[in-house]
Amino acid sequence: MTDTKKKIALTGIKPTGIPHLGNYLGAIRPALELSKTCEARYFIADYHALNACKDPAVLRKMTLEVAATWLAAGLDPDKVLIYKQSLVPQTHELLTILMAFTPKGLMNRAHAYKAMLQSNAEAGKDPDDGVNMGLFTYPVLMAADILLFDTDFVPVGKDQFQHVEMAVDIAQSFNHVYSCEALKIPQALSSDISSILPGLDGRKMSKSYDNTIPLFVPEKQLRKLIMRIITNSQGVEEPKDPDTCTIFSIYKNFATEAQIQSLRERYLAGGMGWGHAKQELFELMNEHLSPMRARYDELMANPAEIDRILAEGSAKARDFASEKIKYLRQVIGVE
Ligand code: ADP
Ligand code: TRP
Known about the structure:
By secondary structure, this protein is mostly helical.
């Protein structure tokens, strides 16, 4: 049952392989936290992925992986609506409607498109080389995803703020033309910038830097990766600064206040080597990640179960979406 008093939180998850620890702590865990106070609608943005991925087997695999990840991380499909964008075709009807309210100039300003133009210019290529219309109109499809579900909040990384602002512009333009409030104005939400998780080399953990800890690596490999975290050359006896240490930054995200305080004191006191700190981090992380990893492996061994969950969620999503489209058809006069 829809609780009408609750605000609606919606986000799209691009299927791009198994997420890393930074994705989990910066995106997945906060979105699951938000679902405790909001009515949450989280979907797999597979049509967005099509712009870059044209291999059906890869797209299917990545979709399963990302769905299994969110389910293993604690998403309860009875409480959170989880669906697949490609199973909600109303999205594309709204996309067509919104196209008529989207100035081309707005798309020219989109960061992803501008980045392509620039890299083409630097490589001496034609400005639009490799730019398909899916990439160019990406923000309109994202606006359709958001506006179709009367979204209040969109939890996303800072890199997606511009897209949400574009959805706002498009919705306002639509509402203005018909003197109505048919499209709800969404707001982007982001976890604090200070919560950026460092990777193995101390830079931001990111696929692009190849410094990640994938979320569900087997225990042995997890330990190996943690042992690879780069530290300074301080000896065992030297006091260490927890606030500039990658091990400590990761540890904080899994530990209780008492555990954080205890490790902080041992850093400052000296007498604890990096190897020891890494071992503590490994044990704590493994304790948290083991049950999730087991659930992930179980789901991946049974893709039919993932498909069932996505099909069920998508059927509910279509019910919401077709109501909305019916109403919008009346507004624009095509019913
Ligand atoms: P990557 O940098 O590995 O390509 P993405 O850009 O796909 O990661 O990240 C998806 C989301 O995960 C981001 O929008 C952000 O909210 C979160 N995220 C990614 N890396 C980190 C990190 N190192 N620390 C905190 N959050 C992160
Ligand atoms: N563009 C988002 C990303 O790259 C994914 C996405 C697609 C999305 N549609 C959305 C996010 C709607 C929020 C709302 O991460």
